[in-house]
Amino acid sequence: MAGLGETGVNGDDDLVFRKIATLFEPLNHKGVKLDRETDLVADLEIDSVSVLDVVMDIEDSYDISIPVSTISEIRTMGDLVDAIHSIKKHQA
Amino acid sequence: MSLFEKFEKNAALYNQLSAAGRNPFNIVMERMLGPTRAIIRGRETVLAGTHNYLGQTFDAAAIAAAQKALSEQGTGTTGSRFANGTYNSHRALEGEIANFLGMQQCVVYSTGYQANLGAIAALATPGEDVILIDADCHACIYDGCQLSGAETIRFRHNSPESLAKRLERLDPAVKGKLVCIEGMYSMFGDIAPVREFAEVAHAHGAYLYVDEAHSFGVYGANGRGVSEADGAMDMIDFYSGTFSKSLASIGGFVASNHPELEYLRFSSRPYMFTASPSPSTIAAAGAALKNIASTPALRETLWANAHRLHAAFRQLGLNVAADPAPVVSILLPSREAAFAAWHMLLEKGVYVNMAVPPATPNSTSLLRLSVSAAHTPTDLDEIVAAYAFMAEAISATQAAAE
Questions:
Q1: Nearest CB to B135; choose among A56, A63, A69
Q2: ipTM above 0.85, yes or no
Q3: pTM
Q4: Inter-residue long-range contacts of B57-63, CB under 8 Å, 24+ positions, other chains counted
Q5: Considering only CB atoms, which chain B residues are within 8 Å of A68?
Q6: pLDDT tens for each residue of B337-390
């Protein structure tokens, strides 16, 4: 359950999760139920380049830049939510 | 946990395609017949997927120059540029390329891949500098960023506005900023607004790096690339290119007006730790460069051929990806459709490249044709006939599905 306790308990955690879930939904062809543990590549079967493209939408939504090396370490929806919080805090 | 487990998924597809004799990634040119023809699977085939834009691979002057270099300088240099692998001929070619581009400095590498890998990795330092790359940049630019270890941020393809936003977000403590784009992008054959990118980069104190691998010799009044066509040559900080397309050889280079480019010679690992290009490949590239400078007709023929194919494909109702360019790609609805279409063309004696995700932008599947100045009217007729056959088969399948 890595990541679960590491979110810094942000009040808008749920909002960020819901936002990125909407962005991934068009690629969720298997109709997987999205939660923090959903693995973007293994569960959603999205190729790595498509993940990068969704990240570009996320960057524009939150007005942040997510470095390529950070993206390549992201496995699950939860990892992505945490990365967004961490970068928002840093770039604010 | 086996080392090989990770290959299984792609290996299954690869083996299945090979068994069916339909593997686009396992093609052997059994015998070359000229710049645009080869024997593939025992059959004479028109080559329309080779990036041999100016068709110079069998140019008599280039072959003669390569043969002369081979007998005078030997088969290989057996050393890196940094040690014993720099000959007069390597230095001379660097001067000729710089001169052709109107730039001060040029450094030659053993491949185009290594030129981008080596220059980008040397220019950006982790913890200090940031690299901003167009999302659709080639793998070698991504690999250069990774090798540099510097923070790398992607911006939307061909969007100077998206670049500006990312430059504005950067921490003021960032030291150097390097922006990487390409002249012509090889998947769709679309071109970058180089001048606009240069303006945005320079307004934010960033350097602009332009990879003209596919556009060198092809775009611009003098063949200097998209940067020249867009009136931006004097705005480019770093210009990279390859010998393996319009220069019909193998090797690569980076050119610049910054005298500091020379420092790559002792700072760039892919320059220092691999053997230099063999003398014959250098001589062939040099001869091809002379032809580009002296024979604008090569470019004119290429463009006439490109326009003809582009118009023909449009007329067939195919989904052409971009405006007329030396790369003419058509988009297909799925991987399976792309495999089938690619195979149909090969059966009709035409070889093109097939590209599917994740190698393509926006998860597209496509057939990529590269036009050559050496394509004869007969070659072009055969290409159009094969595409017509394919287009009809596609619409028949679609009609059956409806």
A1: A56
A2: no
A3: 0.94
A4: B57/B248, B58/B34, B58/B374, B59/B248, B59/B287, B59/B288, B59/B291, B61/B287, B61/B290, B61/B291, B62/B248, B62/B249, B62/B283, B62/B284, B62/B287, B62/B288, B62/B291, B63/B284
A5: 142, 145-146, 152-154
A6: 999 999 999 999 999 999 988 788 888 899 999 999 999 999 999 999 999 999
